Automatic annotation (TrEMBL):
GO terms for molecular function: GTP binding. It is found in: Endoplasmic reticulum membrane. This is Signal recognition particle receptor subunit beta. It comes from the Eukaryota. SUPFAM superfamilies: P-loop containing nucleoside triphosphate hydrolases (SSF52540). It holds the Pfam family SRPRB.
């Protein structure tokens, strides 16, 4: 019970301090000319509305997933597997970015609200890294694909 009484006393001290600050703020606001006060309130309201509208307009979330990695690591095969479930066997060397917006093959059997994913398969060759820079600004996520069998011999390339 003593703890509760101490807590009530502390709350009372805070309430008295808050009332004192409120009284000082009211006195100070009476000293300010009304036009200055109205202009300050208007600037505050306009700034708040502007910041809220900017935030609401920028709320679009990206649904882009970028597949990147070394050459021959299986990015394009993974892209086709996610897109339609097909298993393309063998190496597929890409010189252009594969892009598509679709429901993932594994999600197509589920019910309910399922959002499509924009998937970008970026070529892994070092001369085509500029294509990666183009899509990274829109990416919500990055998947770095590594072929475990080919990784150790090409470890210095992965670090670049």
């Amino acid at each position: 019970m003593e703890g509760m009484e101490l807590w009530k006393e502390q709350v009372e001290v805070w309430r008295n301090q808050l009332e004192q600050w409120l009284h000082q703020a009211i006195e100070y606001s009476h000293q300010i000319p009304p036009t200055q006060l109205y202009i300050a309130i208007a600037v505050l309201v306009v700034t708040t509305l502007l910041l809220l509208s900017i935030r609401l307009l920028k709320r679009t979330t990206s649904n882009t997933i970028v597949l990147t990695g070394l050459t021959g690591s299986g990015k394009t095969i993974l892209f086709y597997q996610l897109r339609d479930g097909s298993s393309h066997l063998g190496a597929v060397t890409s010189m252009e970015t594969n892009e598509g917006t679709f429901l993932l093959h594994s999600e197509s059997s589920k019910k309910g609200k399922i959002k499509p994913v924009h998937l970008c398969d970026v070529p892994g060759h070092s001369r085509l890294r500029t294509k990666l820079d183009e899509v990274l600004s829109q990416a919500a996520g990055i998947v770095f694909v590594v072929d475990a069998l080919e990784f150790l011999p090409n470890c210095h390339l992965a670090s670049e």
